[in-house]
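Render this sequence as a predicted structure.
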Amino acid sequence: MNSNFTEKKILVFLFLIGLFFFLLSAFGLFNDLSASVSSMLYNNLGYTNKWSKSYGPSWFVNLNGNVSSFGSKELVFIISTIFFFYLIVVERKNEAFKFAFTVIISLMFIVLVKFINSERETVTLKEIYTETLANFPSGHAFISTVLYPSMAYFLSKSARTSKEKLFYFVSAIAIVIIVGVSRVTGSGHTVTEVIAGWSLGLTWFSLIKFTLLKNKIN
């Protein structure tokens, strides 16, 4: 009971922190930082060629693309599916469905947010999969902030030591950070858009986990 209460307090704190930074990004308080970082990348790396807006040589572009793919729809689907069946195999079916719920509802949420920001009147399933509805917030940063900490969260439930639990969360945070950074250095998003993705992802992750705990599903 005390453990659940402590966990709820942490989740509320993370929710408020995430919401705070998302609102800052939504009101453009990181726009100057975004402009400075973009200028620095251009001055130090230049554009890949005169036809593109990507920074640095082709190997650098490919590196950023490979790293940011950890937040792509395709890899998120593959990793989520593998982890879902892992939980099934180790006889944690209830947690497997909670994890699946977390990922599916999160994907639906970010599509909704991007649709609202796109100001489109309609959108098709094909457009959702093949097109970027809106740059704000970064979808890669958002879904990685939900997916990998969720995996760490469920893995930590069976961790035998505090060091093992810490390893899961540190690894998840590291992936979240490098995915977000790669979206900036790969010219896919501005710093503002990535911070918005991170913070909205943190807010959403906290809300889902708190809801599961409150309803005694967790």
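Summary. The longest helix spans residues 93-118. DSSP finds nine helices and no strands in the chain.
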